[in-house]
Amino acid sequence: MLLPVFLWASLAQAQKNSGSSQSGDNKGKLPKPVVPLDGEKPLIHVDSLASDKRPKEPKKKKIPKRMFYGIKTRKAYTRVKKGKNYTFELFYVLKKPQDPMPFVKDIYWFHKKKRKIFVGPIPPKDQPFAKIMHGPYLKQVNRDIVEQGIFYLGAKHGRWMYEKPVGEEPILQDKLKFYKGFPKESEISYFDVDKKKLQEVRPVEDGKYHGQYFRFFEDGTIAEEGKYEQGKKIGMWIEYFQSSKKLIKKQTQHAKDWTIEDFEPYVVREYNDKGRVTYDKATEDKKKAAEEAKKPAKN
Description:
This protein is mainly beta. The chain has 2 domains: 63-182, no CATH class; 185-292. It contains 3 helices and 21 strands. Strands 1-2-3-7-8-9-10-11 form an 8-stranded antiparallel sheet, with no helix packed on it. An 8-stranded antiparallel sheet has the order 12-13-16-17-18-19-20-21. A hairpin with a 5-residue loop joins β20 and β21. It is elongated. The N and C termini lie far apart (162 Å).
């Protein structure tokens, strides 16, 4: 009865001694890899210590609140009561003074003393109280949102939506897209790859040239300006010399509006780079009329 027990104990002690001897000889070494049989996955040893030393991903910088397009702003609002209705406007203005978008006609700014939004150039007397609008804008009548969009340095930018409350739900009236004050469809070209030096702006709406046109010199001064209406040039178009003083070179008159047919554009006045008139159509027409009057009448 004692023989089987003695053999089992001897076998166990031998295995223990063999294991301790092997662990002592291979101390600090990885075990030999096992060759996988057909159809089995290979045994891969992972160095956990090395994996712990992997570089950590840098934390993403949080964008400060009230910062839009990299420019800091302040929150502002207006509230007007008319009869039983309240009109509420929530928007943002520049925290530090900065010039509005150049050559954009409709610049939106907030008069902090009158607490009212104005559109257009800022009069010199109002400049101490004027704040250029920049960032999201929302207009609400009672509980209904009627207009929302975003400003970029005073100019409308991105998508603007206009709604009208009908019954319990507002109905979308119009949806327009802008790019820094110009219609989104506009054809805008630049002198440089970084798109910082404007070369030409052709306003496009519904597939036709419509709105204010600008052409620039490479130094940023204006070279030509005019207006399109339904794909046609209208009104006075002006060309300039390359100068910071905005010296006029030539004025060309087009039809007053796009509905006028068979109108032949004509040069009204030309100047030299000193600002002196070199051609004036009205004066030339008077000379021609006087010369015609001097001619003897034909029988």
